[in-house]
Amino acid sequence: MGALLIREVRSEADIEAFLVIRAAVDPANPMTREAWDAERDTAGRLDLLGCVGQDAVGCAFAERMYGDPSSSIGWISIRAEHRRQGFGTALLRRVAEHVSGFGGSLLFAGTTSTALDMLAFLAHHGFEEVGRMQDVELVLAGADTVVALPEGIVIMPLSADLDAGAHAVALEADADVPVATPIGTGDLTRWRERNLNALAERELSFAALAGDEVVGFAIAGRCVPGVVEHYMTGVKRAWRGRGVARALKGAQITAAREAGHERLRTQNDLANAPMRAINERLGYRPRLEWVQFKGPLVSAKQHGKPKRSG
């Protein structure tokens, strides 16, 4: 094949090609146009398309970890057809160059445990496994939605006037999530940007109140058609172990089924035993496993620079 030309995704045709490649290379985890639109303004975001002549053969993106404007970690994703021809390596060099340009010092990436070619690719470029996440799914038809409320707890829709209380919960909950790189909660505005983006569904998100105090919250948003994804479930430390998280998820299951959705999905680190146990009791079943990696910034000098456009 000819030389690879890497350019930024800008036109409608570019976006379509980007999404087609992702769906072709990873059909179990396609990116919707709605998701691309919601993520395109994430801090540090760069979307790339790799072409040989008129044919798109690969795509990639990079952004600051968790969309945190202050993060020095670059979250990257690479998809390439016609493997072992250097296309993935060229895209990796380009996103590493971008991350270095915004002051980044490290790359994070993820792939499924069955994507053997991608696992080998990341290992070849010096990436090391730092964690695993279980992706589980609940079929809503026939799901048990009868969940007892803990004494003294009321479950309410997460309206905007409860956001400040939910943010206070997140300051405790985010710090305790066993992830490979800590989650920076940030202020209320930053928290809203990360958790209540354009895909979030207020009608499928709830808060748990003890009197006037928000002691827990659960946020969900659109995924692929017919599927809703749990974004985050958090409970204040003093209220854990009482069934608050389970009650919040039960409310989400009921609301999602009544709204006509088919399935609910969520991802949890394998180390997060309490939340995984709650999901299992509610009927969630494993769908796949994600492997998380960290790696060095790849120097373009190591391999020569790809051609660039735009």
Task: Explain what this protein looks like in three dimensions.
By secondary structure, the protein is of the alpha+beta class. The chain folds into 2 domains: 5-133 and 292-309, Gcn5-related N-acetyltransferase (GNAT) (Aminopeptidase, 3-Layer(aba) Sandwich), CATH 3.40.630; 144-282, Aminopeptidase, CATH 3.40.630. Helix content is 31%, strand content 31%. The chain is built from 9 helices and 13 strands. It has helices at residues 12-25, 33-39, 87-101, 116-124, 163-176, 188-195, 244-258, 273-282, 300-303; strands at residues 5-8, 46-52, 55-64, 73-80, 106-112, 128-139, 154-157, 206-210, 213-222, 227-235, 263-269, 285-295, 307-309. A hairpin with a 4-residue loop joins strand 9 (213-222) and strand 10 (227-235). The longest helix has 15 residues, at 87-101.
